[in-house]
Design goal:
- Helices cover about 40% and strands about 10% of the residues.
- The longest helix has 21 residues.
- The chain starts with 14 loop residues before the first helix and ends with a helix.
- Helix 2 crosses helix 10 and helix 3 packs parallel to helix 10.
Length: about 400
């Protein structure tokens, strides 16, 4: 009798996790490895947030909560949406989950039937297509070229929508490119979506506070309120508040959907950790000025990495508007051989040889549904970034 369900054959292990795990194993063996593969801030969770968690423990906030999150946290998230983007959600339209990934999983599993399609611009986060597949949906991946800033055009969106399209999924700023959408970029997409009333929208705004050079990001409902009743606006505390391990993601959505997501979550994980919820409450209601301080550091790191990588033979690196990633092209290295004897036939060959020969961990573009590139996270200290870029230069300069 077959033990493993067929649905697991439709998905692959997260490549970002696979590479980060390999890098950690190499470090444990004593290898000199600089890991630029993880999408995780190197900043500590701010003191006032940690203090709120300690106070919650000492105050006995260690019991089950409502599945969708404590009333206090849901009210605070609704207010955060209002303050940040002018979005008007009631607490009943808010759900708190174990990270943003569970929000996506809940939404897709609660709504997709076999054969339903989800339009996903690429490059895209590695988990989007697999979550759709796990929910019996069909990911429709639409490549967005570097010449257009890795952003989807209205013409591409229109062409991708079919009678089977159930969702359009957008991540801005984007993992892995850092590309972000302003109101000007979103307006044509909203016009397309208004012409297709059966298509729901999932917008992943987890990096929206990490933007540079005065860029003003926008979100779908903010630009077109008429799409509110079929849009999920997702965010969380992982990136902007340096709280990845606390595992708190949240979303605002029409009550009919949050009710369905709550039902699903109630039969899977139930509520998120009560202590993490207390910390998240402090994060979204407490001081916000430290975010600007982090952004200044990230911007300086971005500028350093973009400048250094653009001096590397065979690479070309666009300057992103947000997040903490760059996504350089390595197509100039294809067909060449590394000093260690590896023929670089693909982006995966490139990052594998780079890790083995120079001790730099990055993620190949194919993992993000966009071959010929690789992702570098600059959420690490400046000196490590400088050394990593120097090693990448040595690696590429040695190709023959």
């Amino acid at each position: 009798m077959q033990l493993i369900a067929d649905r697991l054959n439709r998905v692959s292990p997260s490549q970002t996790i696979v590479i980060s795990t390999k890098a950690r194993a190499m470090k444990a063996e004593g290898r000199d490895v600089i890991s630029l593969s993880a999408g995780e801030p190197d900043f500590q969770t701010p003191v006032h947030i940690r203090a709120a968690a300690i106070a919650a423990i000492e105050g006995g906030q260690t019991k089950y909560t409502d599945v969708a999150g404590t009333p206090e946290l849901r009210r605070a998230i609704a207010e955060r949406f209002r303050l940040d983007s002018g979005l008007d959600y009631s607490p009943e339209e808010i759900i708190v989950s174990t990270g943003g990934k569970q929000v996506i999983y809940n939404a897709m599993t609660a709504t997709l039937n076999a054969g339903d399609e989800v339009v996903i611009p690429s490059p895209c986060w590695v988990s989007y297509p697999d979550i759709v597949s796990l929910a019996d949906g069909t990911p429709v991946v639409v490549p967005c070229q570097a010449e257009n800033g890795f952003r989807l055009t209205a013409e591409q969106l229109e062409a991708a929508i079919t009678p089977r399209t159930r969702w359009f999924m957008l991540n801005s700023p984007c993992n892995p490119t850092g590309a972000a959408y302003s109101e000007e970029h979103l307006r044509p997409l909203c016009d397309v979506l208004l012409r297709h009333p059966d298509v729901w929208i999932f917008t992943d705004d987890i990096y929206d506070k990490l933007v540079y050079d005065g860029f003003r990001p926008a979100t779908i409902v903010q630009v077109e309120p008429r799409l509110r009743d079929r849009t999920v606006t997702m965010n969380g505390v992982s990136k902007a508040y340096a709280m990845t391990g606390w595992r708190i993601g949240f979303a605002g959505a029409p009550a009919v959907l949050t009710k369905a997501m709550n039902k699903l979550q109630g039969q899977s994980t139930s509520n998120t950790c009560s202590i993490a919820q207390a910390a998240a409450l402090e994060a979204v209601t407490g001081p916000q000025d430290f975010i600007g301080e982090m952004v200044e550091v990230y911007q300086a790191r971005r500028d350093l990495v973009v400048s250094m990588l653009n001096q590397v033979p065979g690479l070309s690196c666009a300057c992103p508007e947000g997040a903490f990633y760059v996504f350089p092209s390595m197509e100039g290295c294809l067909g060449r051989t590394s000093a260690g004897g590896t023929l670089i036939s693909s982006d995966e060959d490139f990052v594998t040889a780079l890790l083995e020969e120079q001790g730099v961990a990055a993620v190949h573009g194919s993992a993000f549904m966009f071959p010929g590139h690789f992702r570098v996270s600059y959420a690490t200290d400046t000196e490590s970034l400088r050394e990593a870029c120097a090693r990448i230069r040595r690696f590429c300069s040695s190709l023959t």
